Amino acid sequence: MARKALGRGLSALISEPSWGERAEGTGPTPIPIDRIEPNPWQPRRDFGEEELEELKSSIRAHGLLQPILVRRVGDSYQLVAGERRLQACRDLGMAEIPALVVEADDRQMLELALVENIQRQDLSPLEVAEAIERLMADFELTQEEVANRLGWSRSAVANKVRLLRLSPQVREMLRDGSISEGHAKVLAGLEPELQLKLAERVASTGMSVRALEETLRGNRRRKPKGEGVETPQEIREAASRASKGVKLAVTRRGEVYRITLEADEEGALRLLRSIAELFPGK
Hints:
Elements: H1 10-15, E1 29-32, E2 36-37, H2 49-62, E3 68-73, E4 76-81, H3 83-91, E5 96-101, H4 106-119, H5 125-139, H6 143-150, H7 154-162, H8 168-175, H9 181-187, H10 192-205, H11 209-221, H12 233-241, E6 246-253, E7 256-263, H13 265-278
Parallel strand pairs: 2-4, 3-5
Antiparallel strand pairs: 1-5, 3-4, 6-7
Helix pairs in contact: 2-3, 4-5, 5-7, 6-7
């Protein structure tokens, strides 16, 4: 089954009023390649040589079927979308390339490049995550706003950004295909040491995403480290002094203490007043 394309597409973004008008005419304009600067907001970092060679073969046989997008910068142009097409035409020794000249600010530059690559399925999961994070950080956008721009759900955006919680070693394993994006999403919420340990197990055994989830559920059902450790005498004595009118229990799990209590009306009021004194409102 063909993978469903993500995002709304370049034509949908460009046609919206917020993208401004095309700066020059309504159709592609031949532009000298040596006057086109690269896109500083390009989210793609890995351009496969094999894919580039295939594109060059297609251009030799049929010409460039889709123009690139550029914006004018002084007497030159800056690439908005179509870096691989530009590189292929440059490698083929072409002097000019068909381009649509559009008006776009920096945020729109990044959005257009991101959407184009998503539509073409050219970006790795981490490249998408990094580009989304850059949109949010540089232009103060929320996940909801990014989702609206890309035509995604907010949860889809959140799941991509979640990948940035991976440790550097596990990110590299995702990049080189040792683990899948599904594995990475499961691992992203864990401590770095456990991420790496489980990622290496996935890579060596071929463990499925479902099996990884079952492994984690099994770990969580086990007794957590530190549970049952004796509560220090000082805390037990303090609990005893505070227990008038209150049924109170203190348990320890590692370095975390859990306080459970039941109280009559007088005890509850006394407790709440004490808490209010300890943690006064602003």
